[in-house]
Write the structure tokens for this entry.
Amino acid sequence: MADQPRSEIIKDNPIRKGLDTFRASFSSICEGASVSYTPDAIQQLSQEDLQNVVLDLLFALHNLPTIRFLQSKTGYSTLHNDLLKLNSAISSSDFDFDRIKPLLKTALTDNPNNTLIWDRVYKTVTKSTLFL
């Protein structure tokens, strides 16, 4: 699969319900924060809640088979390794969560587009891991 173009890998490995647990977690966090469940709710969450939402999304993405087939744009490994670096960055106190909000909003939309999600993942890991 490593020789397949990215578009084929994404087409052959759709996300389907792979983000459902993340969305349920987001709904629960919104409920706990008395915020309506919409993609724009991420603007109203506390830093701690936002960090938990982001970690839940990354965990969901780590569990998708696609992540092990897509090549990294930052090195010679896979996108899976880039997400591991992003996990570390998010755990630091100076992470700029604005870098990941477009990905969060896309993942929270009804019927999200697989290609758009993976494009946003690539942009997020590239912006967020350049300074590690």
Remarks:
- The chain has one domain: 18-129.
- The mean pLDDT is 89.
